[in-house]
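User: quick one, fold this
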Amino acid sequence: MIRNIFKKEKARVYLDKLMVIPKQDYMKSDEWGFIGKEDLEGGIREKLTELFSLPHISSRTDAKKTDLGLEVAVVNFQGGEFDGISLGSLGAVPIFWRPKVSVVSRLFNIESGKTIKTAKYCAKMPWNQYLRGVFSLRGFIRYKPIFGIEDIEQLLYFACHQVLSKLIRAT
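Assistant:
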């Protein structure tokens, strides 16, 4: 009986915004292959929508002061690439970047609009997985981009998990 007196009511969480910040056109070179292009932005947007299946704020009924809103944004993402710049007789300089996804999130009180907690996490592909992709048949022939949405999806899920873990600890 005493436990029920001091028992804190769990807050309801509603989704406010899901955003994927688009890349500049010159940064999309990692999406092209010999046969065609892979739309990383559209794939990330689709996976993000599947991942956060919370009710939207506009569907909130019976409003309570403890209701919380959640905003999630993928602020940066990139596929991986490996290339080189020739320096003539001096040799070549390798240029490479690993796939990564950066996720930012904000948890706020809907009634007051006050931010409770923000969290950010950047997930990068491990070097061993990156090198396996670069030195694969797909990496040599380049019929498709070296890393596709399947590879980015793993990073997206991991980054979202880390961000949500930080937000859960705040409530």
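User: anything notable?
Assistant: The radius of gyration is 21 Å.
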